[in-house]
Amino acid sequence: MVSAQHPTRRSILKTAGGLTAALALGSAGVLAAASTAAAVGDGFGLRIVERGEADHRMWYYRFQTSAIGWNPAVNVLLPDDYHWSGRTYPVVYLLHGGGPGQDFITFDRERIREWTAGKPIIVVMPDGGHAGWYSNPVSSNAGPRNWEQFHIDQLIPWIDANFRTYAEYDGRAVSGFSMGGFGALKYAAKYWGHFASVSSHSGPASLRRDSGLVVHWANATSGVLDLNGGTVYGAPFWDEARVNADNPVQRIESYRHKRVFLVAGTSPDPISWFDTANETQVLAGQREFRSLLGNAGIAHEWHELPGGHFIRHDMLRRDIDGIIGRLRKA
């Protein structure tokens, strides 16, 4: 399992240093990058404890925060021309899935740098826990694991304060895979004014269907992987108000006037890391969600494709282009 606390590639970023930046940018670019780096600091309840800014595009930070009991990290992927353009850019928050090996480096491993080359957008890829479910849990026996607080109250304002972003509704999108796809749908509805575009790639969209299978799934996985027996939604009795607030199919009006992009596979995924992380269940929930959006007259784009529970690069590329088309232009 790739530990979110101990990434394996950061020493490469740090030792690449000025030579990599000089080759990529030229001396003027190095000066611009150094000037921008000097402005990136602590704030909003975050204290930087590790940073990597040698690469001209992929910058990295690890924070100390009271919201999380260990030091979570974030990758910030900058546009190719960020250091010399002087422009302001829209941002997409890209949320990783849950389970072994999933953390803030997930989309880096999926070659997001390649698919965003030349595109005028900042991509923020934060830690979300191995099974944090983009939530503040009802209970934790492992110290604070308040991922929702970290992302919404701390990370977003920190990004806006330290990078040239449009700090507004039309300047932000949120997208994610699997658990991250759920997190994207949840954040876009619960924090309506934060995001003008929301995308869910194989993410659950209905918490209560099939006797609350996804709630049970969230409780079980978080209890094992993140909370040492604690739960996201409470057990044996749920925090019903929290489930209602987080459940995409109960927040349909919150998606009106947003760009909504949905992807699901049509095949079961019997070898998934957790038995109920099954694309059949994801597909059923997304169909329920789509039906409700359609009945309400809320525009949305959806794709059902062969295969199970995995990241589809062509859909992510299409999503990035759609996000850029929706958000305020750089």
Automatic annotation (TrEMBL):
Family assignment from sequence similarity: Belongs to the mycobacterial A85 antigen family.
One Gene Ontology term of the molecular function aspect: diacylglycerol O-acyltransferase activity
Enzyme Commission number(s) of this protein: 2.3.1.122, 2.3.1.20
Matching PROSITE patterns: TAT
Keyword Acyltransferase: yes
SUPFAM superfamilies registered for this protein in UniProt: alpha/beta-Hydrolases
Acyltransferase keyword on record: yes
InterPro entries named among the record's database cross-references: AB_hydrolase_fold, Esterase-like, Mycobacterial_A85_antigen, TAT_signal
Swiss-Prot/TrEMBL catalytic activity: 2 alpha,alpha'-trehalose 6-mycolate = alpha,alpha'-trehalose 6,6'-bismycolate + alpha,alpha-trehalose; an acyl-CoA + a 1,2-diacyl-sn-glycerol = a triacyl-sn-glycerol + CoA
Pfam families: Esterase (PF00756)
Signal peptide boundaries: 1-32
Keyword annotations: Acyltransferase, Signal, Transferase
Name of the featured protein: Acyl-CoA:diacylglycerol acyltransferase
